[in-house]
Amino acid sequence: MIREEYYSDFLKQLKSLLKDERDWLANLANTASLIYNLVPKLNWVGFYLMDSEEEMVLGPFQGQPACVRIKVGNGVCGTAVAKRKTQLVENVHDFDGHIACDPASKSELVIPLEIEGTIIGVLDIDSPAEARFNREDQDYLEKAVKILIEETDFTPLLERERR
């Protein structure tokens, strides 16, 4: 199956899964599971959520146990928050400051979750294959994040972040 086909199928399933549920925790958990089970060659998918202005804490995920806290500006996830921009890393070992939660990971894609100008966390996707992700993957997974944000009530996380 080519990328366009499985991503098209994935986005349809994501919309269907989220359409009748607004709870942020349930939707993050189901989104991580759907990505992990439908997108090939992944070894970890999950969310890190802002716990303070300086640090994220582990949220719902699929895969091996992970680092619990990541400081903004550190690693691929922290860099995505600091730069407010998706990070596509072909080889994590070439990324200065990479945090190796799972030594099997070789490439990574991290997409910030930004709502009304506030970053509430990131979607972190790891692969054991080097250069697993390309611009097409990034575009489709950014669409998935947009769907997640549109279909989910993140008010509790926004209120926590704005305190």
TrEMBL record:
Gene3D superfamilies reported in the protein's UniProt record: 3.30.450.40
Species name: Halonatronomonas betaini
Family membership: Belongs to the free Met sulfoxide reductase family.
One Pfam family cited in the UniProt record for this chain: GAF_2
The GAF domain, residue ranges: 45-142
A GO cellular-component term linked to this record: cytosol
InterPro entries: GAF, GAF-like_dom_sf, Phosphatase_reg/MetRdx
Protein name, entry field: GAF domain-containing protein
